[in-house]
Design a protein that fits this description.
alpha+beta; Butyryl-CoA Dehydrogenase, subunit A, domain 3; 5 strands; structural molecule activity
C-alpha cells in the first residue's frame, strides 16, 4: 500500500523552505551590506560604504576597489539594533540547524511512517528560528535612518538585510508547514 508510504505535503514544503531560509539567513548574517551609505559630502561621488552587523566595507564603484575592515568612527557597532542583530542572527542559525535535524528525524528518512509529533515539534523550533532572525532584521530596518552616518549622506537598505528578511519568512512558512504534522497526532489519538 503506497498511500501509507507517502510523505505528507506539509513536511515536504517545510523541508524545502527551511534549508533555503537557512542559506539566505546565513548569507544575510555574514555579508556586510545591511545598509548602504552613499553621496557622502567631500568624498568621491561613486564612494559607497556598506555596513553589515560585523564589518564595514568601502567601495569605489567606478574601479570596484573594495576595502573591508573600515574603522567605526561614528559608533555604528555600539548601536542597540546592531548589537541585537549580532546576538540573534547567529542564534537563529543554530536554532534552524537544530530544527532541521529534528525535522529529518521526524519526517521519516528510515521509517515507514513519519513521526508526526517530532515533525510538529521541529516545525515549532523552525518557526522560532525564523522569528529570531525576523526581529533583528525588522528592528534594524525600523532604525536604519537613525543609526549614525556621515551628515547629509544618502542611506539605503542593503542586500544582506533583504536576504535576512526573505530567509526569516521562508523559515517561518516552512516551520508552519511542519507544525501541521500535529494535526495527524490528533487524528491518531
Amino acid at each position: 500500500d503506497l498511500s501509507g508510504m507517502r510523505t505528507p505535503a506539509g513536511m515536504i514544503v517545510g523541508l524545502v523552505l527551511c534549508p533555503c531560509g537557512l542559506l539566505l539567513t546565513l548569507t544575510g548574517t555574514l555579508a556586510p551590506s545591511w545598509r548602504q551609505v552613499s553621496r557622502i559630502p567631500n568624498q568621491p561621488s561613486d564612494l559607497v560604504y556598506e555596513q553589515g552587523i560585523w564589518d564595514v566595507c568601502r567601495e569605489q564603484q567606478s574601479s570596484h576597489d573594495r576595502l573591508c575592515g573600515q574603522p567605526d568612527d561614528l559608533g555604528y557597532f555600539k548601536q542597540v539594533p546592531v548589537r541585537v542583530a549580532q546576538g540573534l542572527m547567529p542564534t537563529s542559525l543554530v536554532v534552524t540547524l537544530l530544527g532541521l535535524v529534528v525535522a529529518a528525524l521526524g519526517v521519516r528518512c528510515w521509517r515507514t511512517d513519519p513521526w508526526h509529533l517530532l515533525a510538529g515539534i521541529s516545525g515549532l523550533v523552525l518557526l522560532l528560528s525564523g522569528l529570531l532572525s525576523l526581529v533583528p532584521a525588522s528592528w534594524y530596518t525600523n532604525e536604519l535612518w537613525e543609526l549614525p552616518a556621515p551628515a547629509d549622506s544618502t542611506l539605503a537598505v542593503g542586500y544582506s538585510l533583504v536576504l535576512s528578511y526573505l530567509g526569516s519568512c521562508l523559515e517561518i512558512l516552512g516551520g508552519l508547514a511542519l507544525t501541521f504534522s500535529f494535526h495527524h497526532c490528533c487524528k491518531e489519538r
